[in-house]
Amino acid sequence: MSHFPAATETLGTLHTAPLAPLLTRLFAQAEENSPRNAEALADLSDDELERQMRSKTGYIDFYTRLKDFPLAVSPETGQLLYMLARSMRAQNVVEFGTSFGVSTLHLAAALRDNGGGRLISCEFEPSKIERAQRNLSEARLLDLVELRAGDALQTLSADLPAAIDLVLLDGAKALYPEILALLEDRLRPGAFVVADNADHSPAYLARVRSSNAGYMSIPVGADVELSMRLG
């Protein structure tokens, strides 16, 4: 008699309970609670909003305004993260900007389906760390994730894997070049760097798209810059 694998074996962690229904709920909440039309940003003009998003000094105050908002990646970006991590059999992943943990869940699911690994994720807002921890616990993925609370310029400056397979940049956009610089020496050849909303960080785009920077880099959709470390 032929053996057909069970649905959970075929679909993997991302598409089965407990993670799949949790993500459905979290994406619905993120859509309902977008900060774009919220009172948290109502006093900012479009120009001022863009200025604050690009600021290297005011990002803590700006993101503190948004501490109650998920600021989640899109479902498509979440699936891209999972696919990249799975296809390269990633074991060591670093995430800048945990928020409520939506992207963290996708990356941790890939590590689970790869057979294990370590995901270091950092977030300066304590209440978001707590939310992410609860979501990871509900998804039974918390054992794969090290949540670091505080400014990533400090929390990602030490105790990193010798070789990093995948990086997600989804925190303060102005810090993308500085965060990349902290991790760059540990990126293995072929490592991917995914930068969400990278158009708000022109300096970052100029760096990874430079012909002598050591990356191959392309935009993916409207929101993501996907870069591969060469060497």
Automatic annotation (TrEMBL):
InterPro entries in UniProt: SAM-dependent_MTases_sf, SAM_O-MeTrfase
UniProt keyword Methyltransferase present: yes
One example GO MF annotation: O-methyltransferase activity
UniProt keyword Methyltransferase present: yes
Gene3D superfamilies: Vaccinia Virus protein VP39
Pfam families: Methyltransf_24 (PF13578)
GO biological process terms, semicolon-separated: methylation
Record keywords, A-Z: Methyltransferase, S-adenosyl-L-methionine, Transferase
PANTHER family associated with the record: PUTATIVE (AFU_ORTHOLOGUE AFUA_6G01830)-RELATED
Protein name, entry field: Predicted O-methyltransferase YrrM
Taxonomic lineage from the root: Bacteria, Pseudomonadati, Pseudomonadota, Betaproteobacteria, Burkholderiales
